[in-house]
Specification:
Chain A has 205 residues and is an alpha+beta fold. Helices cover 51% and strands 6% of the residues of chain A. In chain A, α1 links the parallel β1 and β2.
């Protein structure tokens, strides 16, 4: 088994945190250099045809891509502690929370960064800076909604830590590249939650 | 139980097809008028705080949003025929296929349409037509990859019909608004697969 990652990219970090929360050790990591376009090389595409990281090479040689699908596979093999829900009902509500973060917070924040940050130009061509800037506002709308959620409940999906917290944490940390810090936007509950997650051992991956 | 939908929008249609494939009947549908901004009304936001359709009001009054999370809940309650995989491993590979379609085919195609189609201006503000046009090429890249997949395997996730076929079919149908037709792009396997799915009873929802 082997996990292909890219240092500083938020999606590989989600899988790395997920693995750390499970207490799994011993999966070798292989760094892929995105700025050198290594993910688009023929060798890497033989494993990940759409040139995406993270990618998990399974013991039987098959390669699984897509952050959340990799986590589903890991959860099936190492069910404890459960991070995605045990019953169909629990899984559905955690998936809802995770997707709200992915689609309305992580995606617009990533689009803002990819279309406005000079350092991301090798990855996003063509860049549309005006579009990117407009997406920061959409991400902020979701951050405000998330702050209100975290005023009433301790974790993103409700009463317990889940994959949705990992997705949100990796988004907030990546969002520093767009000069986003919850406290600066008056989002005290989001900042307090972020600081609580940052103390977990898994946040140090 | 009650399903909030929006006629002609691809995401509610995914849930409607999923329900039809299961043979479930009797869930009342409530149409939400997106052009009249009904999804942003206070009444609808009380159910779906991020103003998204589809939304499924559960028997206990809670409301579940996010297409795939709604499908996860339905699959838990009506497991047959299974469309998302039975084991953790099967679920992971089907989720991978579904997400590849969602993120690299449906998303860029929807962004193309939302940023370039005058009829979508009420839903996407501000529109960035150049950005939108650039996303059509990204969607086409994925369509070409999908065509190659469908030359080797009958269904999007492999040997059997799954939620990934529903996501891909609803994308191809919606993509007509961007004047996309697989046959016109020389994507014969994708066109043949589309025509096969169109014959299923669930495609008539």
């Amino acid at each position: 088994m082997r996990l292909y990652i890219a240092p500083r990219a938020p999606n590989p970090r989600r899988v790395q945190m997920f693995i750390a929360e499970k207490g799994i050790t011993g999966i070798p990591e292989v760094a892929v250099d995105l700025n050198a376009q290594e993910h688009r090389s023929e060798a890497f595409r033989a494993r990940s045809p759409l040139a995406k990281v993270p990618a998990l090479e399974l013991p039987d040689g098959r390669v699984l891509t897509e952050t959340r699908a990799i986590c589903t596979w890991i959860e099936g093999r190492w069910p404890e502690p459960d991070l995605m829900g045990r019953t169909g009902e629990e899984r559905a509500f955690i998936e809802m929370a995770d997707r709200r973060i992915e689609w309305y917070f992580m995606l617009p924040m990533a689009q803002c960064i990819r279309h406005t940050h000079p350092g991301l130009a090798p990855l996003e061509q063509p860049q549309f800076p005006d579009f990117g800037a407009s997406q920061r506002d959409k991400a902020l709308d979701t951050a405000r909604w998330l702050d209100a959620e975290l005023q009433r409940q301790p974790w993103v999906a409700g009463e317990r830590f889940s994959i949705a917290d990992i997705t949100a944490f990796c988004t907030v940390e990546f969002a520093r590249l767009a000069r986003f810090k919850p406290a600066d936007e008056g989002l005290g509950a989001l900042q307090a939650w972020r600081d609580r997650v940052a103390e977990r051992a898994s946040a140090r991956v």
